[in-house]
């Protein structure tokens, strides 16, 4: 992949991110933050490849640390977000009904 | 179709999952599904990554996955909702650290193999700097949120930070021009780590929501920069999505406090001007103290009650007591809503989570802009553990440290009941003329006990 293509992806994704998030109600800001935080643990996939390639002891150690930390980020992040959101939706789930009622 | 094409397509599908998931997280009804979609995207990405031909042994990575998953689940299941900001800060830091480690490991790998190019070295130095700042900044934020850290820096800290930033840039240039010497990259990580500490140390408690949002953004940007190191599309896309969403939230928090992100980071904090108003002048002889029984009597005849919760409510663990009181009032025919200031908690949306945990319907939680015009038709406003966000000085005193900050107009309600331990100031360190207003009465004491007493008196 050329640098310019990678940079194009980056810029487009930033604009997409802004569009996706701008209209989120304040009620959901905390779960949104912890959920998106879990997504930023995507660095995990780079860590996995690095940890499995056994290039040298040093890089393997670094990569092991990376896999561990990123997995804490990912697993913990999604789980805790789910825990929060389950509190939001447990009661009167369909109070505001759609137009077809 | 060869293996690397399959991997790329798998990553594309995962990216779509993340995008649809984030969109779902934006609406109460779809939020849980959105989170599940995000998690599924991550699982898919991990499975696809395991197909990578560079992987020759699975032991190390499986061990890392197992250890990480165990620690992550335990933290997620055990955390108290009041400590959510600390946990998010910690996760942010781990994400940043992971990015630094991956970028460093792969930088060392390509320098060993002699296939380094400018993209890798520029991206690795960017990751090292952003990731290290995210890591140590988050750790400091964690301790500040736990209130186990009082150190707020030293004189000239801004000069030191400027010097650190400059040396960061110099080291980045060295990494790029002399990539075979990995010492430069390690030095850059060290400088970033120190900078992260010194940037967050002077930032006060009230600004924490901005800091958390900003660190969230940085952890995404670090992942994105790692994507440039590894030439990995999914890292670039997912990382920049998160980076952008963190920036949007930072902006929202800044608007809510009428401060610029730069003012928060460089700690151009409210300082000398708070001396302009003497608490004695504001309060002397004008504060009316009341009892739980009296408050219950007023509430008994109220048609509409607005509760204004602040972080003090969470500290007093009064959420469940508030719900009990709400139930009694509603059974009495009183309309009860909650007015939520954007910075009511320690992170964006924190107060909503705390009240949701106490099983208060999220549709009863009303945003500032929506609730403010309704205070004039409100019989009783109950301020519980909030202070600066209801301080009229924000509107009347242009020299005040909170001047221009949007506030909840509780003083427009017929009666304002303020439940507070004492007349001590909030984070901004200034007196609050609301407490001395003619229509305000103070109920001094612990929030939880006060609410329980009111509820008891209401039942009699």
List keywords for this structure.
heterodimer; A: 101 residues; 0% strand; flat
Description:
The complex is a heterodimer of chains A (101) and B (460). By secondary structure, chain A is an all-alpha fold. Chain A has four helices and no strands. The radius of gyration of chain A is 19 Å and the shape is flat. Residues 93-101 of chain A have low confidence and may be disordered. Chain B has 460 residues and is an alpha/beta fold. Chain B has three domains: 1-78; 82-265, no CATH class; 274-459, Rossmann fold (3-Layer(aba) Sandwich). Chain B has helices at residues 3-24, 31-49, 59-78, 84-113, 118-145, 157-177, 183-200, 208-230, 233-257, 261-265, 279-283, 292-300, 311-315, 319-331, 350-357, 368-371, 393-396, 447-459, and strands spanning 304-309, 335-340, 365-367, 380-384, 415-420, 440-444. In chain B, strand 4, helix 17 and strand 5 (415-420) form a beta-alpha-beta unit. The model of chain B is unreliable at 270-275 (pLDDT under 50).
Strand and helix map with partners:
The complex is a heterodimer of chains A (101) and B (460).
Chain A: H1 3-21, H2 29-39, H3 43-52, H4 57-89
Chain B: H1 3-24, H2 31-49, H3 59-78, H4 84-113, H5 118-145, H6 157-177, H7 183-200, H8 208-230, H9 233-257, H10 261-265, H11 279-283, H12 292-300, E1 304-309, H13 311-315, H14 319-331, E2 335-340, H15 350-357, E3 365-367, H16 368-371, E4 380-384, H17 393-396, E5 415-420, E6 440-444, H18 447-459
Helix pairs in contact in B: 1-2, 1-9, 4-5, 4-8, 5-6, 5-7, 5-8, 6-7, 8-9, 12-18, 14-18
CATH class of the largest domain in chain B: Alpha Beta
The count of strands of chain B amounts to 6
What separation lies between the terminal Cα atoms of chain A? 51 Å
Order of helices and strands of chain B: HHHHHHHHHHHHEHHEHEHEHEEH
Architecture (CATH level 2) name of the largest domain in chain B = 3-Layer(aba) Sandwich
Major sheet characteristics of chain B? 6 strands, parallel
| Major sheet size, sense and barrel closure of chain A | none
In one word, what is the shape of chain A?
flat
Write down the overall mean pLDDT of chain B. 89
Can you count the helices of chain A?
4
């Amino acid at each position: 992949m050329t640098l310019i293509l990678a940079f194009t992806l980056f810029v487009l994704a930033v604009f997409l991110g802004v569009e996706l998030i701008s209209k989120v109600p304040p009620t959901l800001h905390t779960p949104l933050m912890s959920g998106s935080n879990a997504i930023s643990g995507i660095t995990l996939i780079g860590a996995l490849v690095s940890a499995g390639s056994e290039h040298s002891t040093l890089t393997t150690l670094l990569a092991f640390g990376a896999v561990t930390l990123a997995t804490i980020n990912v697993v913990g992040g999604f789980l805790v977000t789910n825990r929060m959101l389950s509190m939001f939706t447990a009661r009167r789930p369909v109070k505001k009904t759609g137009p077809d009622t | 179709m060869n293996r690397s094409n399959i991997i790329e397509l798998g990553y594309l599908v995962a990216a779509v999952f993340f995008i649809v998931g984030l969109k779902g997280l934006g609406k109460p009804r779809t939020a849980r599904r959105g989170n599940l979609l995000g998690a599924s995207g991550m699982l898919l990405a991990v499975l696809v990554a395991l197909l990578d031909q560079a992987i020759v042994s699975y032991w190390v990575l499986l061990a890392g996955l197992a250890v990480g998953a165990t620690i992550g689940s335990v933290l997620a299941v055990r955390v108290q909702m009041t400590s959510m900001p600390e946990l998010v800060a910690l996760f942010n830091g781990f994400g940043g650290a992971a990015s630094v480690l991956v970028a460093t490991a792969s930088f060392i790998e390509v320098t060993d193999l002699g296939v380094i190019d400018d993209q890798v070295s520029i991206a690795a130095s960017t990751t090292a700097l952003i990731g290290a700042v995210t890591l140590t900044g988050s750790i400091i934020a964690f301790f500040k949120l736990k209130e186990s850290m009082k150190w707020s820096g030293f004189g000239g800290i801004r000069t030191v930070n400027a010097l650190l930033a400059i040396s960061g840039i110099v080291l980045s240039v060295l990494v790029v021009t002399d990539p075979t010497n990995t010492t430069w990259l390690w030095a850059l990580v060290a400088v970033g780590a120190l900078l992260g500490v010194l940037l967050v140390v002077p930032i006060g408690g009230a600004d924490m929501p901005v800091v958390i949002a900003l660190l969230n953004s940085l952890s995404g940007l670090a992942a994105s920069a790692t994507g440039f190191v590894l030439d990995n599309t999914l890292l670039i896309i997912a990382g920049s999505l998160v980076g952008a969403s963190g920036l949007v939230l930072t902006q929202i928090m800044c608007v809510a406090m009428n401060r610029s992100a730069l003012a928060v980071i460089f700690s151009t904090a409210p300082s000398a001007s708070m001396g302009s108003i003497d608490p004695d002048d504001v309060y002397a002889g004008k504060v009316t103290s009341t009892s739980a029984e009296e408050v219950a009597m007023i509430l008994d005849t109220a048609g509409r009650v607005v509760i204004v919760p602040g972080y003090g409510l969470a500290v007093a663990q009064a959420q469940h007591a508030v719900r009990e009181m709400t139930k009694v009032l509603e059974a009495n025919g009183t309309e009860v809503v909650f007015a939520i200031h954007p910075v009511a908690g320690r992170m964006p949306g924190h107060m909503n989570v705390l009240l949701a945990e106490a099983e208060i319907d999220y549709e009863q939680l009303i945003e500032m802009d929506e609730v403010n015009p309704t205070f004039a038709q409100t019989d009783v406003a109950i301020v519980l553990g909030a202070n600066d966000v209801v301080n009229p000085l924000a509107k009347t005193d242009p020299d005040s440290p909170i001047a221009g900050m949007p506030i909840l107009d509780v003083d427009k309600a017929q009666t304002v009941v303020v439940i507070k331990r004492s007349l001590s100031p909030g984070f901004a360190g200034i007196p609050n003329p609301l407490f001395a207003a003619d229509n305000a009465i103070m109920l001094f004491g612990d929030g939880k006990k006060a609410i329980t007493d009111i509820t008891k008196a209401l039942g009699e």
